[in-house]
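Technical note accompanying the year-one report. For the benefit of new consortium partners, we illustrate the data format agreed upon in the data management plan: each record pairs a sequence with a structure-token string. No post-processing was applied to the example shown here.
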Amino acid sequence: MTAIGALFGLLISVFLIIKKISPTYSLIAGAIVGGLLGGLSLADTVSVMTDGVKDVTPAIIRILTAGVLSGILIKTGAATTISNAIINTLGEKRVFAALALATMLLCTVGVFIDVAVITVAPIALSIGKRLGLSPSVLLIAMIGGGKCGNIVSPNPNTIIAAENFKADLSSVMFYNVLPAVIGLLFTIFVIMRLIPKRLTNNGTKQEEEVADDKQLPSLASSLVAPIITIILLALRPVAGITVDPLIALPIGGICGILCMKQWKNILPSMEYGLQKMSTVAVLLIGTGTIAGIIKNSTLKDWILHLLEQAHFNEIMIAPVSGALMSAATASTTAGATLASASFADAILAVGISTAWGAAMINSSATVLDHLPHGSFFHATGGVCELTFKERLKLIPYETLIGAVLATSTTLLCLIW
């Protein structure tokens, strides 16, 4: 089918999402229109769409099981304990580093970036009121750290990229460790110097406690779930023992809740995690439909030709496609899904390994995943009580952080 059809379908999906229509239905509608405009019959369009969904089905199953770990970390208070420990250790004088690191580590262990920001935000706002810091500057610190942690985590974007490239998940996570560190340092020492830090409330002290520490689990028990998960995932590269994320993530979560002695909360935590992951899983179904249309169109050939005319190295297919798809969907997960499903074969054809291809797609999907037609933009702005205009002003800083992550991974791939 023609690239024009796929492009129109993608634009229609973006338009409908901006108009606040369900992203899943928007993507499905765009896929139908794209297939028909691209020259396919209605029956062939549906067939291509369902084939696209089949491609993301393994990742959907893994994402749903990841809800066990995520739900347990949030509902037991383990995520809050980890955040408090990091911030208390580094102190208020290093508040930006503390917030960025806390959010990064939460995302690294598998918590969604928006959930990580929401978890750390109450502590951030409390510290910000005591120090007279703008909520905007606090939010960009958390977002920067979250983006860095997101590319080295067993989150849906990493899982789907690894799945579409048929790469080892732990290897994809490992290849982005150094870029994540570079991105964290860039956030703390560059971005935090660029963004205005206007005072609010004249530095008035905030006496109200953010959370009751007595109700939270200990730090040691809170760390059990993420540590066990990481160990299980690391068995393949270290010992040649393969433990699929479908198994590793729920085992880590269950071990963690047992060590925290909150086994009565297993079912509520699993239900909470399933609810959160179901939203992503349904979104991926819609994403799979439009991915099937794009994959079967000549759109990727257009992009390859564009890169050739711009005299880009062929390795740029991965970061450029990841960034473009993240802009189209305003989602790291959806962007990584579209880019990896549509361009994996073209990326592998130029000699890039499966793990490096997935790592580059994953990091580049953070470049423009924060645009206003996505839920992340509104969720993070709302939790920090920012107006639309205030939240809009953060986009250039977020884009710089994502660009540094994508560039770092690409350069490492060239050097490796």
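Partners are asked to follow this layout when depositing records. The two ends are 37 Å apart (CA to CA).
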